Amino acid sequence: MASCPNFRNLNNERTSNFAPFSKSLQSIHNELATICGEDTLSYSTVRRWVSLFREGRTSVQDAPRPGAPKLVTNNDKLSEVKEYVESFPHSSVEEVANYVGISTRSAHTILKADLELRKIQVRWIPHCLTFPQKAARLQMAKENLEIYEGSDPRRLLEIVTGDETWIQFKPPIRKQDGRVWLKKGKVPPAVYVSDFRAPKVLYCIFFDGLGPVAQIPVPKGETLTGQFYADVVLPEVEKHYLKRRPKTGTRGLKILHDNARPHKSLAVRQKIKDMGMHEVPHPPYSPDIAPCDFWLLENSKITSPDVNLRIGSASVGQFTDTLKSFPRMSTERHLKIGLKG
């Protein structure tokens, strides 16, 4: 029996010729079998096409349908994808595919396998420094290097640094600490997000190259203002140095803290002057200068997860013990890091 070249389209064409007439499906299928032999379409396919032609369809070509498209990877497409991603690094796979004119699967293969790219989360920076602000950081670092680089290491003991931090009565479980070992198929336990209204207390923490200097709690209902900082916080720092240095106290020492509004109030500046201290310049938007900001407080919370506090207490309990446990070399090293900017 003769075979039909391009049998699918030819079958469809012949089916379209038979469809308008009142022939039965079986008759149409039999006639196709006579003409095309082994290449004849199945009875169910003939029935589907006859129904389409009788409804008015004229084309014998299959309509586009969903499915796994063929992968398209060539040097031209690869170059286009590379140029587009370099120009628009935040673009999605779908956007790349639409721009280049390829399937998303092809775009994904080019990005992952050919260009060896991976999409990662960008680092969020709270503030973009202007050129004058960068120049201020550079100037501060140069001045500090002239003073402390190569000088007697004991000069670092002249610097006292401080900041404020919230300490919760029951510290929240960090994500990395919430991991548990489970057998396959077991449901992991749930950990609830810490309530922002959970009991906590604001502490002002100061330390120098020898260790903790003062830990002052802010009473419940009190706001940390410049006046409170000058009348309550700084006198505690002064009291510590009067015990350590009865003759000189805080005279000649330098205080390093950030540019928070209470720190820069007139009352605080006057109090620092009365104590015989000097402020170490702190460039704006620079949380990596004072070690309390970039090292001490967060590391203390990580090291000491079971802090037990009482509002109004003069001590910070286990948190204070953790502060004291930091080696002197570590505190000196981070003071140097901060001063270098």
UniProtKB/TrEMBL annotation:
Gene3D superfamilies: Ribonuclease H-like superfamily/Ribonuclease H (3.30.420.10). GO terms for molecular function: nucleic acid binding. This is Transposase. InterPro entries: RNaseH_sf, Transposase-MT_Hybrid. It comes from the Eukaryota. PANTHER family: MARINER MOS1 TRANSPOSASE-LIKE PROTEIN. Signal peptide: none annotated.
